[in-house]
Specification:
mainly alpha; 4 helices; about 0% strand
Length: about 130
Amino acid sequence: MTEATLQMRDIKPFMASVASGWAGSLILVLFSAGLFSMNLTFKLIPLILVFNCAMAGFMLLDKNSGLFKSPLTMAVISGSLTALAVVFTLIAIGFMYLGWLVIGPADGLLFICLGLISGWMGGKLALKSGAMR
């Protein structure tokens, strides 16, 4: 195989896990924004984000753990990129439709740190699950 084919084989599951975590987070946040008050939705964002970042890390390593040299690092990167994408998207949506920042810089940094930690925990769970099989 060529070098470009090998790189695409590594990038495809990584981007799929980040995209599914991003989409799942946005769907849940927007659904809760329509169902609950904005104050309650803002309180639910960390829970939604932690769950979806952990699932992104888990999903990346569940089937593809042998693909990467250091799988836990990839799970951490997957969780933090998912959180980063969600934070930037929520900032853009809030600014575009509400005219103000829904998530401030301190909250955004906290959410990215939560995504990093939960991505690591999801990756750890996937590795332990794979070892038990």
